[in-house]
């Protein structure tokens, strides 16, 4: 019996060490191992660490070592995934971007969208997983906000701009990605932005999908990229964005995670601005109509 307990504890420690190595070192470099990185984000690793530490509550040295590891992981989690609330002045000439994965039901939550547009008055709106959007929804938005142009696009997306849409280019690859490139005319001038939705399978080639979206956006000199990337911000595949784009993640308030609803687990949804555009603030709003947070980003050229 005692031997069995020792074996269980040893296996638990080895498995935990493997998961920590996956999260901090290997990450999603290798497609055949990335599922461990995606399935065990840091909050879950902290929870598992607590469970394993309790297995050693009678062994003082190991128990204290486990507590130290848990405290270290928790401190790292907060330092890398939490932005303290601070007052930020928004310039009058700042551009505002709204992005939301609006899917979690059988109809478009158009009332929520109307409410938020009325309050924020964003310049650019990008919505994904809007397969239930109807012509009636489009008419409601267009009637309520006559200074905007709204369109339902390929890949179950909807966009809106405070001005007019001049060009749309939809590209996709089955079981990989959907992306719409939009060129528009705002009162302040021309803008180009991309709205993307990466396939959610944890075993697919994320490097290819995310890299393709970045390549296409860079070729078009796209100003703003918004999307549900279905990969955590810690993914190695976002490193390539840093050359030409700045993530809004560090300009938020509170936990950076956007999924699931009000639980700080994974930051799947992001906004990127082309350099040298400067992000100012990223706000998050949670609605029960979707398990993804709505993002509102402000930036200045």
Describe the protein.
By secondary structure, the protein is an alpha+beta fold. 34% of the residues lie in helices and 28% in strands. It is built from 7 helices and 14 strands. The strands form 3 sheets. A 6-stranded mixed sheet has the order 4-5-3-2-14-13, with helices on one face. The chain has a 6-stranded mixed sheet with strand order 6-7-8-9-12-10, covered by helices on one side. A two-stranded antiparallel sheet has the order 1-11. Helix 1 packs antiparallel against helix 3. The N and C termini lie far apart (67 Å). The mean pLDDT is 95.
Note poorly predicted spans. Answer: none
Alpha-carbon Rg, integer: 21 Å
Round the mean pLDDT to the nearest integer and report it.
95
Shape: elongated
**What is the subunit arrangement here?**
single chain
> What amount of the residues lies in strands?
25-35%
Helix share, percent: 25-40%
- Separation, N- and C-terminal Cα atoms: 67 Å
In what order do the strands lie side by side in the largest sheet?
4-5-3-2-14-13
Please give the count of helices.
Answer: 7
H and E order: HHHHEEHEHEEEEEHEEEEEE
Major sheet characteristics? 6 strands, mixed
Number of strands: 14
Task: Give a short synopsis of this structure.
With 301 residues, this protein is α+β, with helices and mostly antiparallel strands. Helix content is 34%, strand content 28%.
């Amino acid at each position: 019996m005692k031997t069995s307990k020792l074996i269980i504890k040893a296996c638990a420690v080895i498995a935990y060490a493997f998961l920590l190595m996956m999260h901090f070192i290997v990450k999603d470099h290798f497609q055949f191992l990335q599922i461990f990185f995606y399935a065990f984000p840091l909050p879950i690793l902290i929870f598992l660490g607590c469970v394993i530490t309790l297995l050693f509550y009678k062994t003082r040295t190991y128990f204290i070592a486990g507590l130290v590891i848990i405290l270290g992981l928790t401190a790292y989690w907060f330092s890398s995934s939490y932005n303290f609330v601070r007052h930020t002045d928004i310039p009058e000439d700042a551009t505002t971007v709204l992005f939301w994965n609006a899917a979690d039901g059988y109809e478009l939550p158009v009332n929520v969208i109307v409410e938020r547009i009325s309050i924020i008055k964003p310049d650019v709106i990008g919505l994904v997983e809007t397969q239930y959007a109807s012509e009636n929804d489009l008419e409601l938005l267009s009637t309520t906000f006559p200074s905007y142009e709204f369109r339902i696009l390929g890949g179950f997306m909807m966009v809106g701009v405070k001005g007019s849409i001049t060009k749309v280019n939809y590209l996709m690859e089955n079981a990989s990605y959907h992306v719409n490139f939009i060129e528009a005319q705002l009162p302040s001038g021309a803008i180009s932005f991309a709205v993307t939705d990466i396939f959610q399978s944890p075993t697919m080639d994320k490097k290819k999908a995310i890299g393709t979206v970045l390549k296409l956006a860079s070729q078009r000199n796209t100003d703003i990229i918004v999307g549900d990337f279905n990969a955590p911000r810690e993914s190695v595949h976002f490193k390539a964005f840093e050359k030409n784009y700045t993530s809004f993640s560090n300009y938020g308030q509170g936990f950076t995670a956007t999924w699931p609803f009000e639980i700080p687990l994974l930051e799947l949804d992001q906004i990127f601005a082309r350099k040298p555009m400067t992000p100012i603030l990223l706000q998050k709003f949670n609605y029960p109509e979707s398990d993804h947070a709505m993002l509102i980003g402000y930036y200045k050229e």
